[in-house]
Amino acid sequence: MPRHRIAATLLVAVITVFLCFRTPDWPSAFNKPAREILNSTLGFQHIFAINLPARTDRRDALALAAALTGLDITWTSGVAGQDVHDRVLPGDPSVSRQLSFGKRGSWRAHMNVLQRIVDENITSALIIEDDADWDVRLKSQMQVFSQAAKAFTQPSNGQTVAEKHSDPPGQELPLNQLPPHMRKPRLTPYGDNWDVLWLGHCGTSFPDPSTGNIVPSFRVTIRDDETVPYSKHLQPHPFALEDALSEAYPPHTRVVHASSGSICTQAYAVSQQGARKLLWQFGIQSLTTQWDLMLRDWCDGLYDDLSPDSDTPHIEQYSNQLRGPVCITTQPPLFSHHYGKGAASDITAPGGGYVSKNKEMTPYIRLSVRLNMERLVKGQEPTEQWKDDEPQLNE
Ligand SMILES: *[C@@H]1O[C@H](CO)[C@@H](O)[C@H](O)[C@H]1NC(C)=O
Ligand SMILES: *[C@@H]1O[C@H](CO)[C@@H](O)[C@H](O)[C@H]1NC(C)=O
């Protein structure tokens, strides 16, 4: 090989190595979907599932659902409320000791997972309840979600896209119009600065700054998402009103925004920083009601005093550290409560109303893993649960 060829090859090699090592610091040219999210823990370090050992039925079903969609579950034991003694409850005893056994057990089970995440210095983890369901296309949904979430979680030049667009309030951008200059995250493929990704809920609201809500009102919209059910099917259970999402947006639109008034914890991810803050607040400091309602209020910023007249100096200068919880959610949710057959009696749906024991269903999830378990086990294609309606003639 002539000498100048060798020199040129070496130069290319050096530049390539340089570029590879420099990439993490460079603004990514495009907001590309992260490949790590396709792995068996969805780009988190772990997926924890909370399961009471006595509920072998739920464990069988969740283990199979996870296997059929290429997910790797780390089991963590649910806690019976009778085993949670008065003396371990944090906060005002006259409040915490009033909690029912059900609420105590659920609180403790969630605290145990947070404690483990903190103890083992886990960078990020998804926590799911053992009756959660999801779409067979979850991994690609999570990739799209992460692209939108980074507008809230990934600062570039000290500010996130959501913060840049927070004045005046009420702005939104379609996913494909997010500025392409966001820095590549170092800690998690969902961004570097977040506490909670509230992925499975049974209701959330668009943040409304006029009510004094401190979370950013910015929204990212994803149009023509075929995994989003048709508008009339957007409701947490059959007798609920349709979600605000169905009135505000054309069919098949997904919206990613800061969590506001979210309830039910079918699935949520926490970062290490989020786990530490939550364990401090609810393992050590206070316990007032059931877990999802405390998490709702925490994400809404009700545990923070960020008002300008609090005695923190230079609030603008330090706004990065003081900006309050970063909890991001999506409508419709990516995980949802599965209503199975065979319950001894009708079950009360979260948020009120009854679901028939004869009809299996999962709100919001079109190609449900649970409802397609038999087909998937037999190697057949999954079928649709929430079909689009035929357009009416006189509409
Ligand atoms: C999936 O990706 C995340 C982020 O890179 C990583 O922390 C995790 O260990 C990966 N999971 C597996 C099972 O390799
Ligand atoms: C925890 O992990 C982070 C990286 O994710 C590392 O920087 C830190 O040193 C670790 N802390 C401990 C106590 O190991």
From TrEMBL:
Pfam families in alphabetical order: Glyco_transf_25 (PF01755)
Disordered: annotated span: 153-180
Keyword list, A-Z: Glycosyltransferase, Signal, Transferase
Endpoints of the signal sequence: 1-22
GO molecular function, one term: transferase activity
Residues annotated as domain Glycosyl transferase family: 45-282
Entry similarity comment: Belongs to the glycosyltransferase 25 family.
UniProt protein name: Glycosyltransferase
Species of the source: Corynascus novoguineensis
